[in-house]
């Protein structure tokens, strides 16, 4: 026993010489014969290491001969592709620990077998290997083809081989498919080697996912306090809905709305949906975002359901309905996905000055970064909209999509139904067990957290008015002139605004006013002097003060007037003229017109009572309404008297004639 | 006063041969008076079909002389449509419509001579040296027709007689004028189409009231003459005595028309042709009145029936299709 054992040579790593740290093998998974061989080999190796017996004894005991012991031990001590020791794994029968390499100098070689020839080719011509790799992975601008098929790569390979003047008797020309199969196998291996790069061959989504998920840990693994962090996102509803609109002639027609958006806010800690809003526009705007935020903060009111059989689950609801501590509650951080509407001045200003939260704009186009809300949308679609006959399905090839527009009309699935459905679905969602929070319901979890004293910050009492959410501040100069006798006024979006105080303050002409505009309702504007003192509510002149209209509507009307598509006189209500124009378009089938009509009517005829409307505004509106009413009366009177005079004249004339028989 | 005895089927209502001065008729009359007084050469009167244009013109012809205070010769001609219009046919039609006894069936020039002579004769008689020609269905007139009319106009003008041409037709007339304008045929427009008068049907409740008043009032409608019995009174003597009047029912009928139009989804502007409105009233009078069911007065359901019987709905539906 004086001879040096293999593992006692110098220059070996500690893990190579210590079988106790070697990777092990689950013997049970081997077949019986393999297990027997493996066990004998293992015993032999251990005996060798422990110097328990010499080689002849080992052979006697285990049946593994001298040569094999040495071979096996060398196998065990070698490193695998990942750089770890093979260990006992190398003792599994038929396990390959070394890659196959063809030895071209071997004279005993069977020329008909081409094993290893492809790798040999690549080894001989490294530039061919680079070419294949580049083509497959789309590197180094070798081709403009987005995802080159193996077939085309093979063609390039053959061209390259011809250029290299490889004789036709040599590989790859001496095989049936000119090395195509070998190339396919090579490319498959390549794909696994360069996962991130190869995945881009399967589209943008797969690439995003490969690049941004499955590695590392989140920096804040869990948010505990409710209302600490919320996520916001918008989603286009996978379904078509119908609305009934009245044409100018008084007939009711059913029109299909273009697909539109649902915007929601979810609490990260408890997965509660705090609020939502629906936007009928093609793209949702800053005011839609603010509607959603407003709905999340205002105490929620249940809808009056009209769909037969539809009810709210008893355990569901919105947080503000159930826990009074969450009424008017605001959050600390809001996570966006950096859409353009999120960086609008209105949103930025209101989030900072009214809600007082931090904004995390987040990256564009990385839905996995706001996984919680994205997951919610998936639930909403799968549990709700994808089960309706009017669904578009999740993609154009979805088998659930069967003429959604027609179904919407046929089954009369209207926009009003949608509003009820969404309210019920979200309310039920808040009361259903959620896997992400250990199968508690979001509301239940919120209750527990509130009991622990994790109460959210609430909006200050003086800020609790609905109008404040939609408010933006602008500066306007007071116009008017002593020379021409025009009394002072301010101009905003094509309309003059006045009130009595301003009219009687000619000294303000030329000075700047600070205006607080509620973009949801432009009938009135609150004005302040430059030093910040209040001037009161200004009212839009003429019929603009009758129907509530949003900034969006005003702009649309002004642009139509500018393009001479509509016109109104002092006696017409512009919003009414606009609605009529849209209805005409909608009945002609113009895209988007139906959505716009519905939007205008929603703003104008909103039945919801506004919360904490400032008194000044109501007063200003009331006096404007009175003014308009009296004007209308005067007009009617003059029309009537004119009409009567005309009729009188004809009546007198008539007396001079008699009916005549012919 | 006893109810006049009239044999069934001879009352103007039953025969449908009567003209009443509606507001539109009077409006047209005013326009006509303006033409005559200002010696204008022509005017176009247009409106939807079946609206009562022709009857209105007839009424106007009858009453115009008394309104102006001097006899004014008026000739009325129908424009017939031919596949190939020719001077010969046009003049012959005119002569026939003027009831000229011996039309020369030869050369157009001769026939024109006859027409001019006829007109001259009539104009001379009136002392105003004016004559009025009414072309009915004038939308059928082509550029040739207007040129031939121009020839007549010019010949009369040489004799110091002025002719006014009143073209009565459907709304295509306006389109025709636009067409002439484009073709720079200002001589035609300048002569015959400078003035226009849009003839409407019944559009408002007040107009309806005025018309129904004509049926009620013995001063306007009375049969037999000088009997003091208005049409309404004759057919509903008891109701009339109790104070019921068609005029008072006007709002009911107006509402019925509105409702029925909605029921059939008629989207056009509210404009009821006089013909159907008259049919409605005649129906009501005939069916439920003295010669029919002899009801005291007409109830709403009966009015509805009368409207439906008038054929108004069918005509409007087809009009909407056309």
Automatic annotation (TrEMBL), chain A:
**Molecular functions per Gene Ontology:** nucleic acid binding
Q: Record's InterPro entries?
A: Integrase_cat-core, RNaseH-like_sf, RNaseH_sf
Q: Any idea where the Integrase catalytic domain is?
A: 221-450
Q: Where is this region: Disordered?
A: 622-647
Protein name, as recorded: Integrase catalytic domain-containing protein
Q: Where is the composition biased (Basic and acidic residues)?
A: 624-638
Q: Which GO terms describe its biological process?
A: DNA integration
UniProtKB/TrEMBL annotation, chain B:
Q: Which UniProt keywords apply?
A: ATP-binding, Nucleotide-binding
Residues of the AAA+ ATPase domain: 39-179
> What's an example of a GO molecular-function annotation for this chain?
ATP hydrolysis activity
The protein's name is ATP-binding protein
Species of the source: Cohnella candidum
